[in-house]
Design goal:
single chain, mainly alpha, Ribonuclease iii, N-terminal Endonuclease Domain, Chain A, Double Stranded RNA Binding Domain
Length: about 230
């Protein structure tokens, strides 16, 4: 068992599946290896099934629409990025030189995709039960799901749901600033309610900056995220 397998609490019978899950397309093109893109496709569906089953069993009596919103918050890119960080997935990836030199190991989209690929690899190697055991370690507990507070880091969705209580209100986002070298940019975004700024945030991508702006707005509006 490798150190990474100990971290994810699963030992692969077929190590090639693990290597494929960890191989980004930028590396595959250079080394003639199979990238994790096909596994990512499968992992997306496996994750959706496991999450749906978990929510269905844990939240009896909750209507379909609310279950759908909860699932969306759990499987969004920001959440998968957080899951990947918990197991230091970026350190294990096989990247091409270009991605390596431009911060690919910390790029949200790459880590989120690799996490889905890892789920698929576990599913193919050990079956649905093993994949479910792996995924369940990352899912919010029932108390968090029913608290009405933002799940994980999907603050934009949470803010939108708060604002939708007043149909005439409108949320929008503006990119305020962009600094740094091409491979290490920092973005600053603001969130506006009816064209009035209610929060700002920074991040390594526009999406991350918007999430942080929404997070600040939620905090300033008196909604405790913890």
């Amino acid at each position: 068992m490798t150190a990474f397998e100990k971290k994810i609490k699963y030992t692969f019978k077929n190590k090639a599946l693990l290597n494929e899950a960890l191989t980004h397309s930028s590396h595959a093109s250079n080394k003639k290896r199979v990238s994790n893109e096909r596994l990512e496709f499968l992992g997306d569906s496996v994750l959706s099934l496991i999450t749906s089953k978990y929510l269905f069993e844990q939240l009896r009596g909750i209507p379909e629409g609310q279950l759908t919103k909860l699932r969306a918050g759990i499987v969004c890119e920001s959440s998968l990025f957080n899951f990947a960080q918990k197991i230091d997935l970026g350190a294990e990836l096989f990247l091409g030189k270009g991605e390596e030199n431009t911060g690919g190991r910390e790029r949200k989209s790459i880590l989120a995709d690799a996490f889905e690929a890892l789920i698929a690899a576990i599913y193919l190697d050990g079956g649905l039960e093993k994949a479910m055991k792996f995924v369940l370690d990352f899912l919010p507990e029932k108390e968090k799901l029913t608290s009405g507070k933002p799940l994980l880091s999907d603050y934009k969705t949470a803010l939108q749901e708060i604002i939708q209580q007043n149909p005439e209100e409108k949320i929008s986002y503006n990119l305020e600033n962009e600094t740094g070298e091409a491979h290490n940019k920092i973005f600053t975004s603001s969130v506006l309610l009816n064209n009035q700024q209610i929060g700002t945030g920074t991040g390594k991508s526009k999406k991350e900056a918007e999430q942080n702006a929404a997070r600040e707005a939620i905090r300033l509006m008196g909604y405790d995220e913890e």
